[in-house]
């Protein structure tokens, strides 16, 4: 199984990032441009970000976890379609395809986040310390949540292609309601009551707690995020286990 997973990872690295010399550069440059755009737009309208005084760090700690979730969920959802030719071999299973995509994309995103935030600290000479335990927990929760959503969507999007279009429409507001631009703590009570059920709010809050020692993020619940992620993950695996042969015949 390990050899199969590694082989699938190497194939994706070659096809996704290895087709051009700039493939790996764009993996880093895209989130950098996203953070720069947010910084420029909001620094013109606000005197200071929601936490601290550095706009790039504030928006990076919100945008990068969201980008990791979105990319991981989308990539995992396409696992069966992407690896369909190899799933015809008895030695390759849908679980191999899922694991390969999850591991590769988690490692890629963690490396990108380390490069981008590390660059911000170096360029702006920001002081420490960083609570690496909170940062690690936040990225682990994002990875688990992205995997859970991706695995369930892997079944739904393969079995019902129209679901892919519906999903993209339904999740467009996530970029605005996941705490990238604002702090959950400063929202009106009615908004907080609704936004608390967005698991990404908790992940972003935990991420920012790691970089801002005075930020408590008392609202966040790791158990809620883990519960949602595992429920989606187990439901997706159960549906794929029962129906993956039918999906491959489509």
From TrEMBL:
This is Transport permease protein. One of its GO terms (biological process) is lipopolysaccharide transport. GO terms for cellular component: ATP-binding cassette (ABC) transporter complex. It comes from Paracoccus denitrificans (strain Pd 1222). PROSITE patterns: ABC_TM2. Belongs to the ABC-2 integral membrane protein family. Residues 22-243 form the ABC transmembrane type-2 domain. Its main location: membrane. The chain crosses the membrane at residues 21-45, 57-74, 110-126, 138-160, 166-187, 223-240. One of its GO terms (molecular function) is ABC-type transporter activity. Keywords: Capsule biogenesis/degradation, Cell membrane, Membrane, Polysaccharide transport, Sugar transport, Transmembrane, Transmembrane helix, Transport. InterPro entries: ABC2_TM (IPR013525), ABC2_TM_bact-type (IPR047817), ABC_2_transport (IPR000412). It is found in: Cell inner membrane; Cell membrane. It is a multi-pass membrane protein.
